[in-house]
Each structure stands twice: as structure tokens, then as C-alpha cells.
Amino acid sequence: MVQSLTDALQQERLIVVAVDKNNGRVRVKSESDMCSDLFCHEQTLIVTDEGKGGDLDALNAGDIVKLRTVGDRALEIVVVRRVWDELSSPEF
What we know:
About 15% of the residues lie in helices and about 45% in strands. The protein has about 90 residues and is mainly β.
């Protein structure tokens, strides 16, 4: 079966479930409700509308993100949509 562009985009996106700043971990949930833990390090790049950086304070539970990883280590986390944007969406 051929996947539509919308389906492909939704499968690439994950929802942030929890951010553990002390241990450098981010738990994310896939569209199929499977959770995984990602380990972040000093070189992990967090990309938001506000800019780029390495601070996990830029992430919030409920944010929709895309990832670039190697194994269980996050190289880049891109915030696609903020949790507050999702809750204020007319789709909600």
C-alpha cells in the first residue's frame, strides 16, 4: 500500500511525554503509542521557533517533534508544533 504524504509526516512526528533535564533524557511517544527514551548530550541540538540550542528547557511535555538520532542518542530535536498551539488549534 502506498502511503500518503500526510501519513508519512505523521509517522515521523513524535510527542514529548517527559523531559528529565537532570539525567539528559527525553521520553517520546509515537503515533502507535509506543514510548522510547532518548539520551541527550552537550552536542544535541534543539531547534525551535525561538532559535537553536542545546538546552532541554526548550522542550515541553506535549510538544510535537521530529528527531535525528543514532541508536538511542538524540543528535537533533526539532519542535514542529508546541503543546499550547496544539491545544488552541481549531481541530481540537
